[in-house]
Amino acid sequence: MFAMCSSDVRKDWSGVLDCVIRERPVFIKRTRDRMVLCSTEMMEQIVDNIPIVADRFTEDDNSVSLSLTALDLVSHGDTLQAAKAELANNMIEYAEEYYREFELYSRAPNRKNHLPYVIKALIAKSPKELEDAIICQDGKI
């Protein structure tokens, strides 16, 4: 493995950060611990292929409900765009809560698989970026 020893990272912290920002991720080992230090741009590439697929339901009044089953989130709006905007905001709120309670959420069997979506929401440049990434499919009752 291409891991740097944590003591070497500490000695050359500035150089390691320059490498991470300008060149590539850095793998670090400390005793039995292993980690990766990477830029948010690299993390964007990692989570770019995580689709945000929501089930779309048209209500009797022609309003729209969206269900993002991957995160157990729902939204509702007068239009599809309004529902997508609300769902994007709900994702951001959930991601922030997940991050605040990371020790609990990341270990919970029903939430630990949410991490890629959480990272995607946390590093999004704007709610609109998430909104535009939502793929809608017809929901089944």
List how many beta strands DSSP finds: 7
Shape: elongated
Counting helices, strands and paired strands, the structural category is alpha/beta
Largest sheet: 4 strands, mixed
| Portion in beta strands | 15-25%
Count, helices: 7
How many angstroms does the end-to-end distance come to? 48 Å
Mean pLDDT: 94
Q: What's the Cα radius of gyration?
A: 19 Å
The level of helicity is 40-55%
Give structural notes:
The protein has 141 residues and is an alpha/beta fold. It folds into 2 domains: 3-38, YefM-like fold (3-Layer(aba) Sandwich), CATH 3.40.1620; 46-138, Double Stranded RNA Binding Domain (2-Layer Sandwich). It contains 7 helices and 7 strands; from the N terminus they run E-H-H-E-E-H-E-E-E-H-H-H-H-E. The chain has a 4-stranded mixed β-sheet. A hairpin with a 5-residue loop joins strand 4 (52-58) and strand 5.
Which SSEs are present, and which pair or pack?
Layout: E1 3-5, H1 6-11, H2 13-22, E2 26-30, E3 33-37, H3 40-47, E4 52-58, E5 64-68, E6 73-77, H4 80-100, H5 102-105, H6 115-123, H7 127-133, E7 134-138
Parallel strand pairs: 1-2, 4-7
Antiparallel strand pairs: 2-3, 4-5, 5-6
Helix pairs in contact: 3-6, 4-6, 4-7
List keywords for this structure.
141 residues, alpha/beta, YefM-like fold, Double Stranded RNA Binding Domain, 2 domains, four-stranded mixed sheet, three-stranded mixed sheet, 7 strands, 25% strand
Kindly summarize this structure in a few lines.
With 141 residues, the protein is α/β, with parallel strands linked by helices.
